[in-house]
Structures are given as C-alpha cells and as structure tokens.
Amino acid sequence: MATAPALPPDKGPAPATASTPELFRQGMRRLAGACTIITSVAPGQGREGWAGLTATAVASVTAEPARLLVCINRSTWAHGIISKSRVLGVNVLGEDCLSLAKRFAGGVRPEDKFADGSWLTTTSGAPLLANALASFDCLVVESMEASTHEVFVCDVLGVLLREPGGEPLIYFDGAFLTERRPDDRNSRRSEQ
C-alpha cells in the first residue's frame, strides 16, 4: 500500500506526492460525511418501484432556488431508477438510523430495503424517511456523467424537518462514527 511519508506533527505538513487511486481513496476517507439515504421511485410505480442507497456525496448548490447536488455510482440499481424517473429523495440520517444506513448500504435485496423504517411520499413520489433529521423531496434538473458516477443537480420541491433534531450519523475513515470506540481513534493515531 502506497502512503505519503509521515513527518512528526511539529515539522509541518507531509510533502506532496503523486496522486494514485489508492492515495485518493485514503485521503477521501478522512473527509467526514453526513450519511444520507437517497431514494427514488420507478416511473408509474408505487411502493414496488422504490429504490434507495446509502450515500455521503450530497451537497447544497444554492438556497435560491433551493438546489442540491447528489453523486450516484452508475453501477447501482438505484441509479437506473433515478435516471429514468428524474426524482429523488435525500434523507439526512441521525445516529438513531444506523441500522437503516447499513441496510441501504448493501447486503439486502433492493426490494427488501424499505421493510424497515417509516416511509412517506410527497410531491415527487420518492420515499422520504419520517424520522430523518431532514428530508428533501427533489426533481432532477441537470445530470452529468463523471467517470463511474453521475452527478444529479436537483430542485428541492419540499423539505421535512424532524423536531427536535438529533445527533447526525457521520461516516469517517471507513466506519460510522457511532461504531468507533475511543480506543480505535487512539490506536489509529499511534499507528500514523
């Protein structure tokens, strides 16, 4: 495994190295991300056409008009549904939704993902999680292929907020932060 040479903390930043896919992945693992479940619905279908996946690649674009950017791997089943329907839901997860985040991350058949959780639909028809910290009902207005992924720019049709809020579910360094014990963080620091 290629790694950049480490310098003691008091000696300044590590020297720049040539980017490799592995170094890029390692670097991006250090960018903490809010966990979301991205959902959609196949055109003309109800609950039997729902699709979803866990993702961290979501960002705000503008507040006026309200727009979000969502990046989805083109190899996922949900990507095909989003591409056809041009609607999606962005459900921002609290730490109490860890089991749902794992469920939507894989290992469960697509048609079984929505067996847990309380789901509702609004304007677009994409499923929204009733107990998400926030849910955004979206219409895709632009899309662009970017290597293995597709970038969707979405107009926000509506926002649902959980009151009171709650603690966010964060993904960092290959794990959900609620799953990391303090010992794990300390041992990683001593290895570096």
Describe this structure in words.
This protein has 192 residues and is α+β, with helices and mostly antiparallel strands. Helices cover 19% and strands 37% of the residues. The chain is built from 4 helices and 12 strands. It has helices spanning 21-29, 77-85, 98-105, 182-191, and strands spanning 33-34, 36-41, 50-55, 58-63, 66-73, 87-92, 119-121, 127-129, 134-146, 149-161, 170-172, 175-176. It has a 7-stranded antiparallel β-sheet with strand order 3-2-6-9-10-5-4. It has a 3-stranded antiparallel β-sheet with strand order 1-11-12, with no helix packed on it. The longest helix has 10 residues, at 182-191. The radius of gyration is 18 Å and the shape is globular.
